[in-house]
Specification:
Blueprint: H1 4-15, E1 22-26, E2 31-32, E3 48-51, E4 68-69, E5 76-77, E6 82-83, E7 89-90, H2 92-102, E8 111-112, E9 119-120, H3 122-128, H4 133-153
Antiparallel strand pairs: 1-2, 1-3, 4-5, 6-7, 8-9
Length: 154
């Protein structure tokens, strides 16, 4: 096991969970490690395995089969969709992938809607992404880091 990707493969086989829902993170720093990160280059800080929601795309309660465009992926959605507070639609998987890409290291307390730029707060993201308990812990830590950085920037 040399890279984070190797570790995710091993953990997936060991605990019999899909690889794509297993991420290696540093919660204290708000980092999600890339697959190509070499393990021996990591600091000795406590890194954790974050187990995601296998059922993220189950019915959201907003699945009336009316077609809408996903504001993030631009794909057409009929089921497995959620309406953000600004009125735009997305899918929980699209939203989670976008959140894990954009939120760690952000300088705003939430993410702007790609269409109208209204801010989706972290609690909204957690709810609409249908985050697992591990994901909730991680992104609440990210929220704390962002708030601290915003205060320091002032």
């Amino acid at each position: 096991v040399k890279t984070i990707g190797d570790l995710r493969d091993l953990l997936s086989a060991k605990i019999k969970k899909p690889r794509d829902i297993l991420l290696i993170v540093d919660r204290e720093k708000g980092i999600i490690f890339n697959d190509d990160t070499e393990i021996e280059t990591l600091n000795a800080t406590p890194n954790e395995m974050m187990i995601g929601n296998e059922n993220r795309m189950t019915a959201t309660g907003e699945d009336d089969e009316t077609p809408v465009d996903d504001v993030i992926s631009n794909k057409r959605l009929t089921v497995g969709k959620c309406k953000m507070w600004c009125g735009h639609w997305t899918a929980p998987n699209s939203l989670f992938d976008w959140t894990k890409e954009k939120l760690p290291g952000a300088l705003t307390e939430g993410l702007p809607c790609p269409k109208c730029s209204k801010i989706w707060n972290i609690d909204d993201l957690i709810e609409k992404c249908k985050m697992s308990p591990d994901e909730r812990l991680f992104f609440k830590s990210v929220e704390t880091i962002i708030k601290r950085n915003v205060e320091l920037a002032k």
